[in-house]
Amino acid sequence: MVSTSVDTMTAKTLVDSAASDDPGVGLRAVRSFRELAERLETLQVSRARGLGWSWQDIADALGVTRQAVHKKHGRRS
Amino acid sequence: MFERFTKEAQAAVVGAQQVARETGSRAVDTRHLLVALAQGSGSVHRALTASGVEPGPVVSKARADLRAGGLDGDALATLGIDLDAVRRQADAVFGRDALERASRTPRGHIPFTPDAKKALELALREAIRLKHRSIRSAHLLLGMLRGDNPGRDLLLQAGADTDALRTALEDGARAA
Fold first, then answer.
1. Beta bridge mates, B112
2. What's the half-sphere exposure (Cβ side, CA atoms, 13 Å) at B172?
3. Closest residue, chain A, to B70 (C-alpha)
4. What ipTM describes this predicted complex?
5. Which residues contact A64 (CB under 8 A, 6 or more apart)?
6. Disulfide engineering: B43 pairs with which of A35, A53, B144, B172, CB 3.0-4.6 Å?
7. Which residues contact B20 (CB under 8 A, 6 or more apart)?
8. ∠ CA(B39), CA(B40), CA(B45), 5° rounding?
9. Interface test with A, best of B23, B65, B79 (most A CBs within 10 A)
């Protein structure tokens, strides 16, 4: 019973903040979201290269040109 | 401006860049500078201790914040993203501290944030105010305390008494 009410509270807090009309909150979320995506891309590309993926394979999966992905990640892996 | 910095103050500015590299940061802000100033055994370290702030925990907290970098778990939660869950998943696939390791530090010179530049300017002003001919590391922290920046916020969170700290820094700068 106690845990249910805590869960409900957490969910409500989340919904409240997601619905927040404060641009500051929204923009900070976007910034962190972009940073998170960048870091995951770095990790995924590096792992794919390690597993023998070609730059073209990686570019196709990311939906960008081979040149773009090589320029961005080439010197790291 | 830098030619008026003492060796210790120059080392702190260079050290801040090193801290940025170690924490995977894209820019040097006042927290990096604070770490560089507080982690040694120099005049700022002594002034912090004298004013009742333990430098060790402040340095650790700053480094932890910097390593988390632009990833704001609370902000991501508003999108329904559980950063801790993402972190666990990333660690499972890519190895320990994967998200931290994936943070990209620019090669070569790491730019200073406007706040950090402002703190350096304020340090110069502090030296002039105190009629000191050179800019010492104590002036750097005095400058930081004059501004509104994340380095100062960290010190306030650590319970720093800014008046006591200023006095200790000014004494240190005078004695140097």
1. B28
2. 26
3. A32
4. 0.71
5. none
6. B172
7. B26, B27, B28, B32, B66, B105, B110
8. 75
9. B79
Give the N- to C-terminal CA distance of chain A in Å, as an integer. 52
Angle formed by the axes of helices B43-50 and B137-146, nearest 10°: 50
pLDDT tens per residue, range B86-124: 999 999 999 988 988 888 777 778 999 999 999 999 999
Give the burial class of B92: count Cβ atoms within 10 A of its Cβ; 0-12 exposed, 13-18 middle, 19 or more buried.
exposed
Do B149 and B33 meet the contact criterion of CB atoms below 8 Å apart? no
- The conformation of residue A22, written as its DSSP 8-state character, comes to -
What are the domain boundaries of chain A? 2-76
Separation between Cα atoms, residue B116 and residue B121, nearest integer Å:
9
Report the SS3 class of residue A54: coil
Using a CB–CB cut-off of 8 Å, the residues of A that contact B are 14, 17-18, 20, 25-26, 28-29, 31-33, 35-36, 38-40, 42-43, 47
pLDDT class of A2 with cuts at 50, 70, 90? very low
Residue-range domains of chain B with CATH? 2-69+104-175 (1.10.1780.10)
Which residues of chain A does B86 touch, with a Cβ-Cβ cutoff of 8 Å?
36
B98 → chain A, closest CA residue: A43
